[in-house]
Prior knowledge:
Layout: E1 2-11, E2 14-24, E3 29-33, H1 40-47, E4 55-60, E5 63-64, E6 73-76, H2 88-98, H3 103-116, H4 132-144, E7 150-154, H5 162-177, E8 181-185, H6 189-195, E9 198-203, E10 206-212, H7 213-219, E11 224-230, H8 233-239, E12 244-253, E13 256-263, H9 269-276, E14 281-288, H10 292-307
Parallel strand pairs: 3-8, 3-9, 6-7, 7-8
Antiparallel strand pairs: 1-2, 1-4, 4-5, 9-10, 11-13, 11-14, 12-13
Amino acid sequence: MLSVEHISKSFFRKQALDDVSLGAEKGEIFGLLGPNGAGKTTLIRIINRIVEPDNGVVRINGAIMTRKHLEHIGYMPEERGLYKSMTVEDHAVFLGRLRGLSKQDVTAKLNYWLDKFEIGDWKKKRIEELSKGMAQKVQFICTVLHEPELLILDEPYSGFDPINTELIKNELIHMRNQGKTIVLSTHNMKSVEEICDRVALIHHSKKLLEGRVADIQEERKEGLYAIRFRGNMIAFANALWSGFEVVDTENPSDNLFIVRVKMRGENTFDDLLKVLIGQVKIEAAWEVLPTMQDIFISIVQPKLTEAL
């Protein structure tokens, strides 16, 4: 649905993007990851035609992007752009008209979202009367009023408490299920794991990684398994042999332990269970996959060290 092809951009000889290519499919949530200053926001602004690339093209459904395509894009920038002296209703009408909606359509759609979020009494409030989180919710509503096919959100959870973060997350999942394409730029790695289908990681203006979240975690796993058991830690350790290495141990209560074990050689999870059964009472056992935060740090931190 969205294809970014060999995009490069410099500002005053500072390379912001260097031959970046990536793509988001119809009906998926695509995570755009990277540390501050990596080039994510520049790429988002290029997709929205706020700035033009030095090289490369952006395609929407296979066609080179034009300003006409902007009618089908919803964009919520990291820098919030609400006019503080306007009421919520007037602001929604203003932005809705810019996207080609009639005043009547905007009013109907605004009422739908205000009712859905149970905030109907905000309609006549001025933006300056709202808290940061409330204003953020209004900006999200204004972003989706025209029912865009492509939704681009830059740090959408900034300013939200956990309840409202969950609310927006569920709305994004619902939109994906309706066939919308969502590009999500965020530092919230937990939400990436929960809702993103695929991700790309940009650092120092280059794309370093792209793929399905599950595939990336699978590729970078390290043979770690966790065992939660009741019993004696000495009995657990004695049951192991040289084919297994205890990485770390938690002791939540007197006789309850959670131990992470790393496989050595050709040993398998079955082998691990066989040596433990009968020695301790196993309550749960699972493979430990690296989190997206682990993966992010493992890729970015060495690059930061090299740059020093």
